[in-house]
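ok here's Protein JINGUBANG, seq below lol
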Amino acid sequence: MKVGSWLPTCLTSDDSAIPFPRSPSHSDNRGSTTSSSNSSSDTSYGGLHTNPSLQTLPSVPSLQYLFPETLGSSVSHVTVTSIKPRPEHPITCIAVQGNLLYAASINEVNVYDRQTSALLDVFNSQGSSSGSVKSITFCDGKIFTAHQDCKIRVWQLTMAKKYNFLTALPTVNDRLRRFILPKNYVNERRHVKRLWIEHADAVTGLAVNKCLIYSVSWDKTLKIWRASDMRCLQSIKAHNDAINAVTVSGDATVYTGSADRRIRVWAKSTGEKQYSLMATLEKHKSAVNALALNADGSVLFSGACDRSILVWEREDSSNYMAVTGALRGHGKAILCLTNVSDLLMSGSTDQTVRIWQRGVEGKYWCLAVLEGHLKPVKSLTAVKDEEESDVIWISSGSLDGEIRTWKVWLSKHSSPSSSTTNILKWTLGIN
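and the structure came out like this:
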């Protein structure tokens, strides 16, 4: 794995949304990762006003209430279930599909029953050469895994409840279709060429919208794949440095976050078949590590090594977004984000998970700080309970090799600032 250094001195932009020319192209260089800040962590509500992360991005106003107890919010009790795959390796990503929890531990993908925490299957256990699994997603009944060896692997769950390997992207057929023509090759480095459909470095993120799969890589490219025949439809030189995150809205607008400190917005113009650049969002002072969208795609959350979560909102019906403010409290880099209903969950190098709730006038408050992990929280999932509408399940995967799960009850009561607000209640015994 190629690891680059991160410099604490970063450029600042005064423009939150800057249109760029629409010029998709191919990538020919390798990407790099970034390391997080080493600032101290303060997880208490009362300490938020002294937390060093409050000094980050001073040009961006805060959107949060610093003292949620004045709004009537409280935490009653917290206990968790814990899963530790064997052997104990860092949890690189987790994902949920139905009643199944998928957890990647280096190259292996462990499949658990979410209700009982029972281990159901392990796949890719023989594929140590594939490197660590960076992302897991689902489309058309298949499982897609992104790997450090530059490939995307496709798996199928059989009738016997086992996972069979189907193919790797790009497929052999896709390669054969293109390898003859010189125009299908791009320069990877001096005297070395590759097909434009191939990623040249670790695939770090996957996102799905309807029949399309979007992949991003440390090679600085965004690629779009068609799920039906596994063909690569487009490759875009999307950033000037490694791409760490990708998310897509219901209307197929794609957002990519990079170590170049930028978020870029991609969409198809009316009548066009190819994606092109719609806007570049610049406010973060260091590498962007995580992205999440709210349910209708009107609000984008971004987390970076600068310890802040920025909130971006659409100014109108267009794809342009402007930053409205920041959520601060984490003491170190933001590594992962996920959104359910009006709740945002964030995981950090400071080893904690924070739960944020959107309130009146676009303000947020931190409802809880979940502690217990011994190393950075790398991945998060959150899903609503199918039977209990006021219950949300949150799972976190950490580099300490542990997966923790919280069952969260949401109940309403009156508060000084609004007619109703949520209280988080936590009860779940350790298995």
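fwiw The two ends are 36 Å apart (CA to CA). kinda neat tbh
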